[in-house]
Amino acid sequence: MVYNQTMRLSEIKEIGASQKIALEKLEMGMERLLLPLLPRIKSHALVVSGIRRCGKSTLLRQFVKKQKKQYFYLNFDDVRLAPFSSVDYGLLDNVIAGSGAKLIFFDEIQSADQWELYVRQKLDEGFQLAITGSNASLLSRELGTRLTGRHLVKELFPFSYKEFLTFFKLKAGPQSLSDYLDKGGFPEYLKTGNDDILIQLQSDILLRDIAVRYGIRDTSSLRRLFVYLVSNPAQMFSPSKLTTIAGVKSPTTVLEYISYLESTYLIQLLPCFAWSLKTQSLSPKKAYILDTGLIKTGSVSFSGNLGALLENFVFNTLRLKTKDLFYFSGKKGGECDFIVSPHDKPSCIQVCWELTAENQDREINGAIAAMDFFNLGIGKIITFNTEDIIQTAGKKIEVVPAWKFGII
Known about the structure:
By secondary structure, the protein is an alpha/beta fold. It has helices at residues 9-25, 56-67, 89-99, 115-124, 136-146, 161-168, 174-183, 187-192, 195-214, 219-231, 239-246, 251-263, 277-282, 292-298, 306-319, 360-373, 402-405; strands spanning 45-49, 71-75, 103-107, 128-133, 151-155, 235-237, 267-270, 285-289, 325-329, 335-340, 347-351, 378-383, 388-392, 395-401. The longest helix is centred in the middle third of the chain and has 20 residues, at 195-214.
């Protein structure tokens, strides 16, 4: 292959060396719960995906340290590497060979041109690769074409409630959960308490990772849509209604924006359960915010709906363990917030801040409708701080405090 380089060998070498020095100066940080689950194999590339600033680089640094191997590091999300293109991989080969490392650690790989071809090449050469990325759709598309069967993906999220407790040396309970709902789990924000960190993070993702990458000129409409969603967590949305809110003409544009927000992990979508995939795709979806700390800093009009905030927390807790999540809407009425693993071992979970005389029938009936549909004898209602057991209609409903549910 003939390479017509756009960068110099010395540039790539110097950038890589300075990045590695900067990386090793950072604190090793608290060990993440995901760390023991990362595989140590050469046959497949280890891919850790997740939102920016959630700790992916720190996690892989912990991973590398556990292996006690010399490694080569390069972060492609560096302005000095902006000229880097596929023709420069020949130079990168030389830099890696000169390092003597057989373990390669690439950060923010989605910023590199044709990275999946290069990763495949290095795997074939016997290197062990660990890479991170912040765009789920780009990663899945490119991994699915050139690296089918040669990669293992692990998702990293901001600190879970359990990790939050460890970080601050707190005990599980109403007060610590209240703090977590307010602050969320971004490590850097938790260290400083500076709201500007989360505000800037959201701005960077909206502008750099979405508007610039996808050529969106009307950035104000993208921002209006995100602000609405972050101000109304755990709500169903209608693309046609959101056209007016975002200030765009077409529901198609809204759906494109939402797909971009989801691919960068700012929001997560929950579909309605149906045995038919067509029915499922046509039903309204619910939108959740990846981290509750973003709700406080990204919203200009959050209503203070504590029930929605708690539901968002339960979704995030469930999402740490599985993607197989739905909400349930019965044909004869009755809605249940979460159906977990419906095709395998289904469970039904309802969420409300507290059970009151006004909402008790609705919440219980929604849970029972889902339990009947899936032929289940036991279900759950998650509240902020109530523990109880409800026996009704031949069903058992466990009422569980969210702070207890969050550490299971």
